[in-house]
Amino acid sequence: MAAPSIYGLSRRGLLGASLALAACQPQARSQPVPALPPLKSLAPFRVGTAVQAVHLNDPALAGLIAAQVSQLTPEWEMKMEYMLRDDGGLRFDAPDAIAAFARAHGLALFGHTLIWYAQSSPAFERLDESRVSFAGAYRNYIHAVMGRYRGVAVGWDVVNEPIAEDGEGWRDSLWSQRLGAFEHIADAYRHAREADPGAALFINDYNLESIPKKRASFLRLVERLLRAGVPLDGVGTQTHIDADLAPGELTRTLGELAQFGLPVHVSEFDVSIRRAGGLLRQRGDLQRAQAALYAEAAEAFMSLPARQRFAFSFWGLRDSESWLLREDGADTPLPFDAAGRPKAAARAWAERVG
Ligand code: XIL
């Protein structure tokens, strides 16, 4: 089978995808029943987690995921760094494995992410000299990736993190330089809509609760895209927060994001203990503050109109898999401990979604 490439799509390559997706993985063994009912059984909205293909080979973790959540977001294996080879070819094995697990367990799949300032690729960088146009390859990439999961993914983060760190304007990137600051964003959504008309198209960013200026810029961009008729269906707030975030900021942020009437995705929730500074130094205090923020997030999400609650996704379930461990091995930002037992934070969250 000819592999699809951003330099020209192979129809056969795309068709092969649906066959690969049909192959189910063996059922993961379930782990001992947690004392708390599964989070997804309590919440009247989809509950998600980030996942890597390698996690699905760990029976205890795979069992926890299948039991607790109803939506999966590939943590990195649907990003350009994984999917796009230097020669312009595409790699689908890991994301296909995640999609197959989702299908086997009746979980939704959420695509993350197509265009991200933080990732470009030699396949695009070399297009200066190539006869293939940059704009054509940009469209081909979005079509190839989304086309593979057409009718499978419920939604996509089409553009991730478009707002500058301090909230002053937008990110500079290969995409903005070659296609235009606003145009590359607008075009990504237009291509995405064509590629999978059934997928909900999201814009996603972080620090929206801790940097009001960044939140304001994000909201202005959403408004501008909608005014321009760009097919944007939802807003995502990553919600990587620290345990010392002031109470009320999460609630304010979700309220402001809901102003357009679009679905809202809490897309990457975790609460860092180790990044928190200030007066709350004791670990016990920080853990209580963490639980309070889990409770606030659940309550604020529940206060949105039901039709605007797209999903609430954790950026991992067990502390032992958190991406924050790379920064500080003692961090414990997630709802379950390393043994898969629900923490006080999970209980606080669960109490507020019922
Ligand atoms: C992180 C993943 O957790 C890591 O495994 C990866 O190496 C880098 O990216 N915002 C995002 C996510 O949108 O894609 C990031 O995920 C975390 C911050």
- Assembly level: single chain
CATH topology: TIM Barrel
| CATH architectural type | Alpha-Beta Barrel
First-to-last CA distance: 49 Å
CATH first level: which class? Alpha Beta
Q: What sequence of helices (H) and strands (E) makes up the elements?
A: HHEHEHHEHHEHHEHEEHEHEH
Detail the poorly predicted runs.
11-28
Shape: globular
What structural class is derived from the secondary structure elements?
A: alpha/beta
Structure description:
- With 354 residues, the protein is of the alpha/beta class.
- The protein has a single domain (40-353), classed as TIM Barrel (Alpha-Beta Barrel), CATH 3.20.20.80.
- It is 38% helix and 16% strand.
- It has 13 helices and 9 strands.
- Strands 1-2-3-4-5-6-8-9 form an 8-stranded parallel barrel, surrounded by 4 helices.
- Strand 7, helix 11 (249-257) and strand 8 form a beta-alpha-beta unit.
- Helix 7 packs across helix 9, helix 11 packs parallel to helix 12 and helix 12 (283-302) runs parallel beside helix 13.
- The longest helix has 20 residues, at 283-302.
- The protein is globular.
- 50% of the residues are buried.
- The site of (3S,4R)-3-hydroxy-2-oxopiperidin-4-yl beta-D-xylopyranoside (XIL) has 7 residues, from loops.
